Amino acid sequence: MNISTDKRPSEQPTILSKLQDEIDQLPNALARIAKYILENPEKVLRQSVAELGEFAGSGEASILRLCRQIGFTGFRDFKLALAAEVGRHQLAVVSSSGADPAIDQLQQTLMQNLAIAHSNVDLLTLNGSVAKISNSTEIP
User: Fold this and answer.
1) Is 82 among the domain residues?
2) In this protein, which residues make up the domain named HTH rpiR-type (predicted)?
């Protein structure tokens, strides 16, 4: 899913619009990462820094440099902000249905929380925990 990076003058620049604005000035490795993120923002939320590096054709250090260059302390901080941005975009699409504003606000909050929770899940740890619980005879 590609999310529009069009900016309205009254809004602060979004992560995706920052990447779009800076992509031509970035070194090749960082530009490849930015291009991949712009084309796959939802997929990036489910990827580790190593997976993103593999898919974008760049190293983990380059990903961290890009995150810092656009104002984040690291990849986790970047993903949290991206999750909120993707959630807001998804809400904007759904909210155009004209539903009750209170329901729209609740839906926005829930979608943002789910996106943030989803970006924080470490699948290896989760799968390991599930396997341990499944194989145990007693849960302390």
Assistant:
1) yes
2) 13-89
